[in-house]
Amino acid sequence: MAIIGQTSSLAPADKRFYATRDITATVDSIPLITASILAKKLAEGLDALVMDVKVGSGAFMPTYELSEALAEAIVGVANGAGVRTTALLTDMNQVLASSAGNAVEVREAVAVPDG
């Protein structure tokens, strides 16, 4: 299991692409979001990928249908690039863990595979 954050060397052009999406009002373009997300994921040479696509209040996409479309795009492109990929749609309106906060949520998520 790996949990990483973005660095400027991982996908150096992504910051420029995002700035371009911002000034061209295409921030919510599913193909461009997919490219941005997968540029970072595929740069790591993964064998498999599980994506958590959020739905609900605070999610990146405003509706279930758009979240589902994003998940389908990510899975299709990543599988096409040779990385076995699946996506989970998880509800931002529901508590997903017994704790709240970045560090404790990560600790809890990492503990799940160990039972």
From TrEMBL:
Listed GO biological process terms: pyrimidine nucleobase metabolic process
UniProt keyword annotation of Lipoprotein present: no
Pfam families: Glycos_transf_3
One of the record's GO cellular component terms: cytosol
Keywords: Glycosyltransferase, Transferase
Domain Glycosyl transferase family: 1-109
Enzyme class: transferase
EC number(s) from the headed UniProt entry: 2.4.2.4
Reactions catalysed, as given in the entry: thymidine + phosphate = 2-deoxy-alpha-D-ribose 1-phosphate + thymine
InterPro entries named in the record: Glycosyl_Trfase_fam3 (IPR000312), Nuc_phospho_transferase (IPR035902), Thymidine/pyrmidine_PPase (IPR000053)
Gene Ontology MF term list: 1,4-alpha-oligoglucan phosphorylase activity; thymidine phosphorylase activity
The protein's name: thymidine phosphorylase
